[in-house]
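Subject: complex prediction, re-run

Hi both,

The earlier run crashed halfway through, so I resubmitted it with identical inputs.
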Amino acid sequence: MHEQLTKFITDRVQLSEADLQQVLSCFHLLEAKKNELVGRAGEPSRRMFFINKGCLRVYFIKPDGREATRRFAFENSFSTSLTSFIGGTLLKEDTQAIERSELLYINREDFYDLLNTIPGWDIFYRGFLEYAYVSNTKRLEDFITLNPRERYQLLLRENPQMVLRLPNKLVANYLNITQEALSRIKSDI
Amino acid sequence: MHEQLTKFITDRVQLSEADLQQVLSCFHLLEAKKNELVGRAGEPSRRMFFINKGCLRVYFIKPDGREATRRFAFENSFSTSLTSFIGGTLLKEDTQAIERSELLYINREDFYDLLNTIPGWDIFYRGFLEYAYVSNTKRLEDFITLNPRERYQLLLRENPQMVLRLPNKLVANYLNITQEALSRIKSDI
DNA sequence: GTATTTTATTGATCCTGATCAAGAAATCAA
DNA sequence: TTGATTTCTTGATCAGGATCAATAAAATAC
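This time it finished cleanly. Structure:
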């Protein structure tokens, strides 16, 4: 059950066998049905998910009541509502399983305990934060420099599985354009 | 010369006096003239700046040749071209002193040495990364949820000193709108 | 202090992507 | 399977902000 997670961690940081086991023991299995919410805005519960199988979508509700997708996460990656995880505040975003998913989650308090008890876990977290920052910065840059068509073409080039695997509606939402606009972009080549 | 920096650090993390002195000894003074570039895209040099006095602007050049402002930083804050600092890659952004500025900088290699030698410096860096992530996420959210007028109003509410202190041209660039649009927004109330 | 350059304002026009609407296709429930 | 719901496509219209242009104001240089 923990093979993929073990590989993910050991690819990034060196841990003793005992420490690795302690880390793994903090993760719990969660099977989520398609469209199930595994985190809801307003809840205090803050978990970090590792995706064994399936796909998560993190989104928030805009002032006008519509959804805005922050990101998707697929197999063999971590996902959390990081702003709340960092601050220990109530969740500001929903986390939804887009497909039937198999998740391993760790609670925020256990995660922070590991930072103090497992040498090397702080390096893991630092790497996670750095990656999250760089990803976010790139996404912001894409919004600032590219128009909707260019954003779609970039996504298709760099993340074709997103376009292939997800319904248009969600791809459009991720690109912050309407379904209609995406449909026209796709047909226009 | 190091009072402001000392306060900034000790407000955030506990260090022994000796460790604090070692940290401070890594910082060097740089006086920058108005409009001077203290970091240039393409350079290998990667410094992190603490601003004693003045203002820095980090910007990159878009594919169409125009500038896009990533952020401004004022007195008593740190600023760096963080994506390059993290990756150890060539700078992708220019860093410009908007006003005559008094800066303290630390080189990337010294910064990373401190991570291994000063207990507590890793906590400082973690806090820096977390803050950078949260700020960036908020900025991205603002672009996704707000139109130009609303972005300006938000900036005026949350960061009035930016609007008062910086020329319209730069405020407009930061908001990713044209000077003309900002001028009309301002006159329209 | 004057000349030059840069920045700010205002007007006219244009264009991209949103909105509204309707029908087709696909998905889901049972 | 069949019916219901959701998603996708295509068309017509609209609006916000970009662009281009010209003048005014301010900042800077000498």
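Residues 147-148, 177-178, 180-181, 184 of chain A lie near DNA strand C (CB under 10 Å from a C1').

- K.
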